[in-house]
Design a protein that fits this description.
CATH architecture of the largest domain: Alpha-Beta Complex
Strand order of the largest sheet: 13-18-16-17-14-15
CATH superfamily of the largest domain: DNA methylase specificity domains
Shape: globular
Number of helices: 10
Low-confidence stretches: none
Distance between the termini: 11 Å
Oligomer: single chain
Number of domains: 2
Strand content: 15-25%
Largest sheet: 6 strands, mixed
Length: 365
């Protein structure tokens, strides 16, 4: 095992953002894939080929963005630090990355990917900046990692790849199951968004039971339970304060996707939420029905705040809805509950696989 600076085993490349003043710098035709840290929030795959937005060749040439080759390791260097993915094809990033083009004679892309996943805390600790912390290009170039022989790297990768692939397969199946459920919901309740009822009457809100933990507090209680934010799992800790089936809906910060729909997480089992997402269950309807309702409900009209976006509990409750009768709800639940049971089973398997993956990463790196 030899210790190398990143600059000795690869090239560190930053990114850039074309001016939004010029529409011709951005593309709706999937021209050049352009990745931002937001695209990696909650992203669970090893490889990434595109994000929410695309840029044009003109946008690339008139900004500091650069084309990165396939197998480049994308590492977010600010807001937040430590998201990691491998470029599945040529693409570009914004300035929130310090990406590494690996020298494959010295280090395999997959090995570097797994290595950098384990370095999140170290990168956060060496980041600098008064307004927000950032890992500079110089710091990334001088960051040191242990690199074994290529043969040893292959053996380590062979232990981790099957776990990663099984997790990704389970996620793909669940995506398909959820899409099927959404289609069924829209076909069954085409006019659900218009009506005299208010969704607040069908929500149980547990926001008062949330107890956010600081990073310092979490560092003192490492464990297996999920500490969950508005968009994804932020940490794993030794305690939980919720156990069951819940819906997390982004309350502030990231509250909607690019199409105006709410940021949602369907959570089951034991977990600890922070204070950036509403914690909900269905009231007189199943939590799964409530989940499908919000997935197809544009919430642009209830968002407040110019800088810090927010969805208040009052505004959330005010959304109009035409509620089906109990017989219709019961029939629909009989159809979708087995689907969601399968979703939960595969997610529980993924949690076990993720725990194995974390143990392997700790032992191998």
């Amino acid at each position: 095992m030899t210790k190398y600076k990143i600059s000795e085993i690869g090239e560190v490349v930053g990114g850039g953002t074309p001016s939004t003043k010029y529409k011709e710098y951005y593309s709706t035709n999937k021209d050049i894939s352009w990745i931002t840290p937001k695209d990696l929030s909650g992203y669970t795959k090893m490889y990434i080929s595109n994000g929410e937005r695309y840029i044009t060749s003109k946008g690339l040439n008139n900004s500091s963005a650069k084309m990165l080759p396939k197998d480049t390791i994308l590492i977010s260097s600010r807001a937040p630090i430590g998201y990691v993915a491998i470029a599945q094809k040529e693409l570009a990033t914004n300035q929130g990355f310090k990406s590494i083009i690996p020298d494959k004679t010295k280090i395999l892309p997959e090995f570097l990917y797994f290595t950098m996943i384990t370095k999140k805390s170290e990168l956060e600790n060496i980041a600098t900046g008064s307004t927000f912390k950032e890992v500079s290009g110089k710091v990334m170039k001088n960051f040191e990692i242990d690199v074994p022989t290529i043969e040893k790297q292959k053996k380590i990768i062979d232990k981790l790849i099957p776990i990663v692939r099984k997790i990704e397969l389970n996620n793909e199946i669940n995506t398909n199951l959820l899409q099927l459920s959404q289609i069924m919901f829209k076909n069954k309740f085409p006019n659900v968004n218009d009506g005299p009822d208010k969704i607040g009457a069908y929500i149980r809100n547990y926001d008062k039971d949330r107890k956010p933990l600081s990073k310092k507090q979490r560092s003192k209680m490492p464990g297996k339970y999920r500490y969950i934010g508005a968009t994804s799992v932020n940490d794993y800790i030794a305690k939980y304060n919720f156990d069951g089936i819940y819906l997390l809906l982004g309350e502030d910060g990231t509250v909607q996707d690019i199409n105006g729909y709410p940021v949602l997480q369907y959570i089951h089992g034991k977990f600890w939420p922070n204070n950036h997402a509403h914690v909900l269950q269905g009231n007189k309807v199943s939590t799964e029905w409530l989940y499908l309702f919000f997935l197809q409900r544009n919430i642009e009209g209830i968002i407040t705040g110019a800088v810090q976006k927010k969805i208040s509990q009052k505004n959330l409750n005010s959304l109009s809805v035409t509620m089906p009768n109990n017989e219709e709800l019961s029939k629909f639940d009989n159809i979708i509950q087995p689907i969601f049971e399968q979703i939960r089973t595969l997610e529980e398997e993924n949690e076990r696989l993720l725990e194995i993956k974390r143990e392997l990463l700790t032992n191998l790196f």
